[in-house]
Give the backbone structure.
Amino acid sequence: MKKTAAWLAVHALEQLGVKYTFGIPGVQNTEFYDELNKSEKITPVLVTHEGSASFIADAVSRVSGTVGTLAIVPAAGLTHAASGIAEALLAGVPMLVITGGIRTDLGKRYQLHEIDQHAFMKPLTK
């Protein structure tokens, strides 16, 4: 079996004891969601807004002793989840945020969801 980055990511989450992921699949993370659907240990929970996903992940971390995990699309998905991520940071609650990226091999990209995610998340992470 060929092991992909998506397979490795899901395998690592299983080893960490993650039981649920929360988010919305998109073109940037379909392979990851395909692997989540194959997992017998992790249940992907789909939401209607990334903000909900981040607050649910925060709640899961607080009550379950496992790390609440988001699986969201880049840029808009990440900015929508920011309030819940900030709440977890301020409360000292562990949270894992997995977001996709965009192609970087193009000259002038002008792609949908093109923001500097690292700069955006810097004040919201340790």
Residues 61 and 93 are 7 Å apart (CA to CA). The chain is about 45% helix and 15% strand. Residues 5-124 form a domain with the Rossmann fold fold (CATH 3.40.50.970).
